Amino acid sequence: MSDRIQGLHHITLCTGTAQGDVDFFVKTLGLRLMKRTLLYDGVEPIYHLYFGDEMGTPGNLTTCFPWRRTGRKARAGTGQIGLISYTVPVGSHEFWTERFQRRGVPIRKRYERFGQQVLQFEHPECGILFEMVEDDSDTRKPWVDPKYGVPESAAIRGFHSWTVSLRDLDDMHFFMNEGWNYNRVGTDGAFTRYQVDEGGPAKTVDLLLEPDRPPGNWSYGEGMVHHGAFGVPNMDVQDRVKAEIEGLGFTDVSDRKDRTYFKSVYVRTPAGALFEAAHSIGFTVDEPKETLGTEFIISPQFKDQRDELLRRLNDPIDI
Ligand SMILES: [Fe+2]
Question: pTM above 0.90?
Answer without folding.
Answer: yes
